[in-house]
Specification:
Two copies of one chain form a homodimer. By secondary structure, chain A is α/β, with parallel strands linked by helices. Chain A has helices at residues 15-25, 60-70, 90-100, 139-154, 169-179, 197-211, 222-229, 233-244, 257-268, 282-285, 292-296, 317-320, 333-343, 350-366, and strands at 5-6, 9-13, 30-37, 104-110, 119-121, 159-165, 250-253, 276-281, 304-307. In chain A, strand 1 and strand 2 (9-13) form a beta hairpin. In chain A, helix 8 (233-244) crosses helix 9. The longest helix of chain A has 17 residues, at 350-366. The A-B interface holds A 29, 31, 69-70, 101-105, 107-108, 114, 116-123, 141, 145-146, 148-149, 151-153, 155-157 and B 29, 31, 69-70, 101-105, 107-108, 114, 116-123, 141, 145-146, 148-149, 151-157. Strand 5 (119-121) of chain A pairs antiparallel with strand 5 of chain B.
């Protein structure tokens, strides 16, 4: 499929708005923020690519941000990989940020393991299984604190790029979207080629039932929706956007989980939506088993931009596997790649990015 | 005494270097960072202005940064005050940052009470009494993490202004300076007009003795000096400077405690000292009972700049009392005032600052 592009960035949805967003940030200095959290949902068999050891998902978010800030992980050996050995998308994010000299900050919405790098504490705690009906504690407070951080960062950065790392996050996103009246059934993405939609929908619907809410009954109460069936990344992420987007552009970097973030923002301050674009990867927009556009168009006229990454020519099998529907996105990989291209006015291309990713892959994965 | 000034900023020491530093930052956008911590030293009777309830010093740093970020405190009612009712210098800092629209971030070196605002966790813990010989845990790790944060902030801010809030901090500073060969006896400042030099020196010397070290024996080992007889603010503060000052100017905002910070930096990376200036208040440089210049000149040729604040004409007794030697400095008050003047190219003067401080005083203290 041929897409209209700016540099190696696909204008996938709301093209004119997407072009305007890119013009506004071209050559500018962004701050990349990675929000992290854990939810027990990741440990439900079959939900995430956790394999035989679901506890390993506790280590993924801290290891991802260690990779971003240090260039290697501290809380685990090597880097996070899927059971098939495919490396974390944080490898893409880190490579993009390093190439373009973009600073990064971590905001911890609630993880079981604390990263061994500086992180912003916004008072959050790890999330529970959404079938308990008490998924996230302290949502309003975390959102308010993250908002303060977002306001302050918006005064020094030209714009923000915000990503996330939370295993199991598409199922909690589906649940929050259902509660808020967005029909995302069969539309959320997966890090596995075989997207377990039936399982996700069953768990999401069961969680709503246990919480005593109907699809759409919490359209105007995102705090309650997240508290009941969300995850701890969400209030941190949404708070940052709410604090920053009235002052500077914000590229929300992720796949279908961004639908839940947009729904929260729309309910709390729709005026800032005009300053927001989604930054993701080609693997997400070309995925036949999820539908980001179908989700976003139910919420607001938000442009979707996708980094036109292509690993098919990579020297490494672990990277070529991205082309077969594994991983796809995460840790703001697509948004970080877009930001690197825009900061360098296109001189960082998908080729230069792949070269840097391969160098880091070799250093971190191949030779360990 | 007549001083040479730029706007309402006194060029007190190393005037030419001070002028150059100010030229470099004029009209630029700084990031203000407040480092915080607690040490049990604050609870030694007579050391800090804690009055009858030494536990109250646990609340001062979190309350100070809440005031900076929210405009009011959450963990206490009102604002931190001395036993005489004189308000925290955070009132000055907050007023300066607000007037000049300067963003602020908190880095927590280790407090007993967590602030109800976003803060950066660098893995620190509250400090012990320095007479235990194990004052601060995890010094090297905290320093490394703070350095990463400093590096990242230096990529988006034009320059950094770093302040501190840690009750009892001049005694730990004295101890670290003694261990590192700087004779600061009788030279450190106090928030009280009657500076208890004899008590501070006795505690510092006793701490060195208990730790089995001699004055000057740790000149080249700041990690050990802080671990044995320092406080948890120090590695956070020094790490931030070490991470940022190779790239951007850094105004280290405080009084005589900055001597300990400079000694640590000089031992670890003397090359960055040329990018550093001290920003303080007129109350510090005109204090007959301490000697900032006498401390700094033992370490390096660092300019000392002082905000020429004058509260003698204030409507409020609580502020006029600053002119009688109470409080003097803290929470980066002098540096924040300097940054506000420089960002506004002098249109924020000591008069406009006093007006804003009085408005905030009235709102927070007078009418509570």
């Amino acid at each position: 499929m041929e897409y209209e592009k700016k540099y190696d960035i696909i204008l996938f949805h709301e093209k004119e708005k997407g072009k305007n967003f890119l013009s506004e940030v071209e050559g500018k200095n962004p701050l990349f923020i990675c929000t992290i959290g854990n939810t027990q949902v990741a440990k439900i068999p079959g939900i995430s690519a956790a394999g035989k050891f679901p506890e390993i998902t506790d280590y993924t978010p801290p290891a991802d941000v260690e990779l971003l800030l240090l260039g290697s992980c501290k809380c685990i050996q090597g880097v996070p990989v899927t059971p098939e050995g495919i490396p974390t998308p944080a490898l893409i994010t880190m490579s993009a940020l390093r190439l373009a000299n973009i600073p990064a900050i971590v905001v911890n919405g609630g993880t079981r393991i604390k990263p061994h790098v500086p992180f912003i504490d916004v008072g959050g705690e790890p999330g529970e299984d959404i079938r308990t009906g008490k998924a996230v504690k302290n949502v309003e407070e975390v959102l308010e604190r993250a908002k303060i951080a977002g306001e302050n960062f918006s005064r020094i950065a030209d714009y923000l790029v915000i990503g996330e790392s939370i295993p199991g996050g598409t199922t909690t996103a589906l649940s929050v979207m259902l509660a808020m009246g967005i029909d995302a059934r069969g539309k959320v993405s997966s890090s596995m080629p075989d997207n377990p939609h039936d399982l996700k929908t069953r768990i999401a619907e069961e969680s709503l039932r246990i919480s005593g809410i109907k699809a759409g009954s919490l359209t105007n109460d995102p705090i309650k929706a997240v508290s009941l069936v969300g995850d701890p990344m969400m209030p941190a992420f949404a708070g940052l956007v709410l604090g920053a987007a009235s002052r500077v552009p914000v590229l929300i970097a992720g796949g279908t989980q961004m639908g839940a973030i947009l729904a929260i923002i729309k309910a709390l301050n729709p005026g800032v939506l005009k300053n927001i674009a989604i930054g993701t990867t080609r693997w997400i927009i070309s995925d036949a088993k999820s539908d980001l556009r179908g989700i976003v168009s139910q919420i607001a006229d938000i442009p979707i931009l996708a980094a036109d990454l292509d690993f098919s020519s990579s020297r490494f099998e672990g990277l070529r596997t991205y082309e077969r529907g594994f991983v796809k996105e995460g840790v703001g990989a697509g948004g970080a790649a877009i930001a690197a291209m825009m900061k360098s006015k296109g001189s960082i291309s998908r080729e230069t990015l792949l070269g840097e990713i391969e160098r880091n892959y070799e250093r971190l994965v191949q030779l360990r």
